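cron nightly-structures :: item 1 of 1
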Amino acid sequence: MTLSHSICLRRAMRVAALGLATANAACAGDAAEQLLIRPGRFDYLSCPEIAKAKETAAKREQELKTLIDRAEKESIGVLMAAASYRGDYLQAQGQQKMLAEVARQKNCAAEPSPAGPVPARR
């Protein structure tokens, strides 16, 4: 094997490894957020409790998104945002997905019912 052939082979192996790593990371995106949530955590909540937890998780996700966007405006902010907020952001997204799944399994209403008396039927 010649030296140039060996160099080409090493480059091809690096490109292949990088391609596999990228594909693996893309596939793991959904799983990453759900790995941060304990399975069955929301199974024993009632529908109103699920609605309240979904609202809280959505607010937390929005807060973290705002913080990430603000941090990424700085040159070093991308690293700071990833180190500081990305895990919590993924956890909030995972909570929302699991809460939606539990709500679907329990046949909870899509939107929480408004507070107050229910109008009487005529």
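cron nightly-structures :: done
Residues 22-29, 112-122 have pLDDT under 50 and may be disordered.
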